């Protein structure tokens, strides 16, 4: 079954719900069992057991995402960061060593450098472009290699198969933040990933009204991760799972539009005199383009660009007057966003150096002619204010 079909079918069993097309929302804490045998046979990781472990609404979403990503089973929790932190806690103990890409999502870095360090877990950050040479950094106590491709601010594409091969040869697990591409445009388990994490807040939700993280695992990794996650987190709320399922059904159509519009906007930005460079792996000439073409099935609406040096007053003149591009710390919704970023403040293995102003842009579902007109007016304001 192709993804465009699977995204509409996975996790749906109308015959179990009186023919209802969408899985109903089950609100539950207590679950009643008809007999003592049924009570004693029940397991929290198999079927409905207690509300903290999920309801049929939860399981429908988890099944759908696991099928789309190509994993065995998935776990839905309250946010993308919760998915990351709970997964790492399930895999690591005092004395272990963790390798994390230098381009990682900043809250992931903070958790590793602060919380994990307090628990006696050492984190080393590595060049996101290291590929198979990561073998040189793997120690006897290295238990996890954490990847994120592309990086959420600088958009380097990692050689996930090479990293996975090197990690597995030394007994380490590979965890990947797959939020940028979603389950449709990168298949982590085909490329050697053991555990895939995504913020369903972004493209799966798709409407900027949902907080959720989803962890998808191989069969070998699932029980360990599930038990660890359940120790420190609870599954996502049933209403949120319903919204995520609703968003999932249109993911293929939305993501295709995000991709097409973002590439059009990125190509337009490349031609503007105010722009020093565009960071989009789907564009020919981007340093990550060859790996993106080899491993990815598409691109999302998020990318970066660098403005030529300008005073803050000029940047404010540009951003404060935008009509369609909002300023906010998320992405993946139907609306377009534009913010300045500071990757130089959260790199340690490979310093990020640029003379200009790094920007992160999310291209939503608006008409690209209107978006480009808004950007053009903004860049004109910047140029006038900088003069």
Give an account of the 3D structure:
With 387 residues, the chain is an alpha/beta fold. It folds into two domains: 3-249, Aspartate Aminotransferase, domain 2; 252-386, Alpha-Beta Complex (Aspartate Aminotransferase, domain 1), CATH 3.90.1150.10. 38% of the residues lie in helices and 15% in strands. It is built from 13 helices and eleven strands. Helix 5 (106-118) links the parallel strand 2 and strand 3 (122-126). The longest helix has 20 residues, at 251-270. The model has no long low-confidence stretch (mean pLDDT 96). It catalyses: L,L-cystathionine + H2O = L-homocysteine + pyruvate + NH4(+); an S-substituted L-cysteine + H2O = a thiol + pyruvate + NH4(+). It comes from Benzoatithermus flavus. Its EC number is 4.4.1.13. This is Cystathionine beta-lyase.
List the helices and strands and how they pair.
Elements: H1 3-9, H2 36-41, H3 56-69, E1 73-77, H4 80-91, E2 97-101, H5 106-118, E3 122-126, E4 142-148, H6 160-169, E5 173-177, H7 182-185, E6 195-199, E7 213-217, H8 219-232, H9 238-249, H10 251-270, E8 275-279, H11 289-295, E9 302-307, H12 312-320, E10 337-340, E11 357-362, H13 368-386
Parallel strand pairs: 2-3, 2-4, 4-5, 5-6
Antiparallel strand pairs: 1-7, 6-7, 8-9, 9-11, 10-11
Helix pairs in contact: 3-9, 4-5, 4-8, 12-13
């Amino acid at each position: 079954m192709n993804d465009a079909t699977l995204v509409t079918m996975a996790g749906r069993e109308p015959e179990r719900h009186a023919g209802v097309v969408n899985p109903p929302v089950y609100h539950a804490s207590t679950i009643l069992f008809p007999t003592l045998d049924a009570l004693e046979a029940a397991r929290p990781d198999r079927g409905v057991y207690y509300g903290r472990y999920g309801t049929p609404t939860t399981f429908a979403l988890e099944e759908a995402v696991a099928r789309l990503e190509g994993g065995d089973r998935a776990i839905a929790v309250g946010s993308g960061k919760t998915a990351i932190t709970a997964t790492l806690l399930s895999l690591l103990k005092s004395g272990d060593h963790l390798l994390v890409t230098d381009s990682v999502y900043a809250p992931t870095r903070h958790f590793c450098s602060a919380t994990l360090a307090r628990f006696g877990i050492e984190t080393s950050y590595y060049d996101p472009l290291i590929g198979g040479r990561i073998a040189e950094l793997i120690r006897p106590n290295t238990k996890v290699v954490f990847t994120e491709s592309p990086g959420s601010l600088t958009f380097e594409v990692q050689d996930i198969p090479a990293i996975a091969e090197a990690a597995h040869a030394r007994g380490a697990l590979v965890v990947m933040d797959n939020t940028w591409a979603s389950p449709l445009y990168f298949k982590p388990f085909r490329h050697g990933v053991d555990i895939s994490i995504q913020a369903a807040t972004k493209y799966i939700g798709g409407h900027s009204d949902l907080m959720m993280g989803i962890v998808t695992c191989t069969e070998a990794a699932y029980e360990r991760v599930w038990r660890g996650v359940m120790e420190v987190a609870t599954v996502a709320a049933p209403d949120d799972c319903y919204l995520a399922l609703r968003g999932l059904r249109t993911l293929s159509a939305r993501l295709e539009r995000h991709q097409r519009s973002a590439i059009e906007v990125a190509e337009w930005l490349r031609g503007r005199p105010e722009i020093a460079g565009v960071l989009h792996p789907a564009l020919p000439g981007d340093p990550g383009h060859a790996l993106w073409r080899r491993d990815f099935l598409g691109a999302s609406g998020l990318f970066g660009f660098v403005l030529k040096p300008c005073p803050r007053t000029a940047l404010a003149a540009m951003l404060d007057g935008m009509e369609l591009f909002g300023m906010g710390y998320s992405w993946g919704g139907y609306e377009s966003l534009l913010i300045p970023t500071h990757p130089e403040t959260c790199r340690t293995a490979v310093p990020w150096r640029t003379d200009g102003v790094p920007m992160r842009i999310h291209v939503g579902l608006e008409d690209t002619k209107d978006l480009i007109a808004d950007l053009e007016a903004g860049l004109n304001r910047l140029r006038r204010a900088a003069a």
